[in-house]
From TrEMBL:
Record's protein name: OPA3-like protein
Naturally occurring in which organism (per UniProt): Castilleja foliolosa
Top-level division of the source organism's lineage: Eukaryota
InterPro entries xref list: SDH7 (IPR034573)
Amino acid sequence: MRTVNMAFLLNKTAISALRLRSQKSASSIILPRRGFHDELGARKKTFSADDPELKRLEAEMNNAFRRLRGLEVLAVALLAGSCYGTYYVTVETLKGLAEAMREEGRIEKSD
């Protein structure tokens, strides 16, 4: 079987990438893709201007995300507490059963 050298493949792709890059830079010097302009248009100026309503909306969204994160933490704490409560009740029940069985064994031995 013939094995392929990974360095050869890497070198070959690197050379082809450089070749493509040089072709792009040569053509981009001749014909730029976008025209140059000095000033923004009226529409772009309005979009780039600070909007107080947008800032208020962003602040409200940040507060909502903080509240949601707090609720998630509360839900995890509640779940952990309920799991611990279930564990505690189960362990105490088993302890009570074990104690009752020991007591029953003592009664049988004494008879």
